[in-house]
Amino acid sequence: DIQMTQSPSLLSASVGDRVTLSCKASRNIYNSLAWYQQKLGEAPKVLIYDVSSLRTGIPSRFSGSGSGTDYTLTISSLQPEDVATYFCQKYYSGYTFGAGTKLELK
Amino acid sequence: QVNLQQSGAELVKPGASVKLSCKTSGYTFSSSYMTWFKQIPGQNIEWIGMIYAGDGKTGYNQKFKGKATLTVDTSSSTAFMDLSSLTTEDSAVYFCARRYSDGTHFYGWFAYWGQGTLVTVSS
Fold it and tell me: Do B115 and A32 count as a contact with CB atoms less than 8 A apart?
């Protein structure tokens, strides 16, 4: 099975900061990667699919990049409403989520 | 618009079973897949399995075989998940979710989610 490892598990940042979250696959997942935002008590919401495609309605401060085994979600200017846990999900050879990065305000 | 409405929270005793529902609207249910996930609050999201509503064919995560049974009722556009022989380790939030489709293909990411059903297993 392909494992997905996210880092860091907890990230504290200030409003306006550029924030980078990492997701590493244990094998090549051929760009089959999505990013989700989950706020407390809510269902996950997809932000990015196919590594870098922005889901309709998602602010442009969110962006994704990467290839092979290494992928990144970037928030260009952190906003208070971005406080949430972020999960990556691979969809090559089954569906697996990373353990998440909890993003909080400093 | 696509909507997935899940049944309410359940408190069940160890050893019992529970049936969760996910009522859908806004798309052609019988031509789509429904996927179920488990999330212990504050933890990872696990794929349980999926069902194609058109013919009821299922696929399960090996970990949940024998624990979860997925079914559908196309007349009411509702998907169901039975969880059996419950233990405290089954206490979690369970989500139904639908993969994105452009009308021709289904993609691997999940555009639509139910609000989740909290299952608490306790004596």
Answer: no
